[in-house]
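=== How it folds ===
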Amino acid sequence: MRICDLCGANEAVYTDYTKGISLCADCLMSSVKRRAWKVLEEELIEGDRIVVAHSGGKDSSLALILTKEFSDANPDMNLTITSVTIDEGTFYRKSSIDLAEKLCRELGIKHLTFTMEEIHGLSIGELEDKLPRDSKRSACTYCGVFRRQAINAVAREMGATVVVTGHNLDDIVQTALMNLARGDIKALVKTLRHERRIEDGLVPRVRPLKYVYEKEVAALVAAKRITAHLGKCPLTQGMRIGIRREIDELEDLEAGAKIRALRSFMLISNEIAPDVKLKRCKVCGEPTTSDICKACQFKAELSKVVGRDLLKPLNLDSVREKLIRG
């Protein structure tokens, strides 16, 4: 049994190869909390109404816990927190929603679930069944775009001033590399630069785990027995899987490669003037940088697949009804 190199008392559960030390669950939690709270201190403001995008997975669950603890430790900031889950309609999501609800009961936080079907008129479960095998896009690609738009629209409808997400260091570096590989500089800047700006219809996002490795999250959730789903979504495929594998191998060869990559991308993005002007989608009215948002472009493709017209404004009636009921 290896003992924690910091406290010298407890069994180590994680080895930080960037520093050459092994940590117990308590010391690892202190390290993760310090980095996450630094982000929250820099990006939250007094009176924020926070929606946490909470899938029930390990990352969003830890982000919720750390945000709640930060709020409790800073009562003068008068922060309010609501957990929101977007149910994509897959078998995978059912189990994680149960865990999300359980964790919110443990924390004393209000939890709301909205289905992708009621908001977009389409579930990913239906899409999986009907999407042709030779489709140029996977269900994962469609799901990510629809889910991001849904959480933004729900948070906006709820009057949220910020959305907290569970994106960790690995997620952000993978996305940045994907944008770089595609030559999408605007997306690269958007991924790395998160100035808090008031933009028409777009709720600012905060990512408290952006300096935290995915392995740290997994070790912490397992060791602390945090109520969360530890598995990965089985729908994930495409470029991200290859990028993840390559960057993991690089990290094994050069400890700290991921955090150095993140800092380098952030420096590069800060040197590029953001040329992103938001407008409203001509179809659904949601914020976009194009005349037609990506979600509506996808829905135009999928209307033929599912056999009905999906091109219409988002249905937020269920959001309003749940808010009225309190």
Notes: Residues 29-274 form a domain with the Rossmann fold fold (CATH 3.40.50.620). The chain has one domain: 29-274. The two ends are 50 Å apart (CA to CA).
